[in-house]
Design a protein that fits this description.
Layout lengths: L1 E9 L4 H11 L4 E4 L6 E7 L5 H9 L5 E9 L5
Antiparallel strand pairs: 1-3, 1-4, 2-3
């Protein structure tokens, strides 16, 4: 299982619409509104064979209102 986070920059006034679309897709384990350069941060878990770049391009960047994104791949969770 691979874990990664995607920070999403939305078009002005589209943050809630993008968040609602992400929730409806049921593909993110957690979705947060954030302050700073990006408006949303979402956490994802995918099987090892899944191409993360393709996943982000196919499912996230095509959402109406998404302007930009940055993907952060997680290596290890410390407990």
């Amino acid at each position: 299982m691979k874990t990664f986070f995607v920070q999403i920059k939305c078009e002005i006034g589209k943050t809630y619409a993008v968040s609602d679309a992400l929730v409806a897709m049921e593909i993110a384990s957690e979705i947060y509104s954030t302050a700073g350069r990006f408006d949303i941060m979402a956490k994802f878990h995918v099987d090892n064979g899944v191409d993360i770049g393709l996943f982000v391009n196919e499912f996230l960047l095509r959402l109406d209102g998404v302007k930009d994104s940055e993907t952060i791949i997680a290596f290890k969770a410390f407990h």
